[in-house]
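Minutes, project check-in
Item: structure for the 146-residue chain
Input as provided by the requester:
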Amino acid sequence: MDIQTLKKVIEDCGVKLYDTETNIENEQKIYRIFITMEGGVTLDKCAEITRIISPILDLDPPMSGKYALEVSSPGIERNLNTLSHFKQSIGENVKVKLEGEEVNTNIKGKLMQVKDNTITLYDKERQEDISFTLPEVLKARTYFQW
């Protein structure tokens, strides 16, 4: 199933597709679908999406061979892979690894703004705003300050 069809099926259930990923854990292939919804994702909603998506994926599998399907919330600490992910996380604490000319740069701060293709964080350590574009991001994720 292509990502647009998956997105449409999931949105018809009243939730939004956040992301998908494929992994191998303990020699088992896993296809994960991350969903979000107003008020938070419930176990019942994950089970509903699984029941709807599973037969469709049986006909049009996301990968070859046997795999396990998991449907869940992206969690409080989640990867940020798209501009949409960054926009949804404005105001949250974020860790970003940027590609640099000589060495990679790590930034930790509050996500302040996403405008056009530019992302701005307030770096607490440096006490300044740092802006960068999505293509510069090697890895980014939200984090929870305990």
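Outcome recorded: The chain has a mean pLDDT of 92.
No further action items on this chain.
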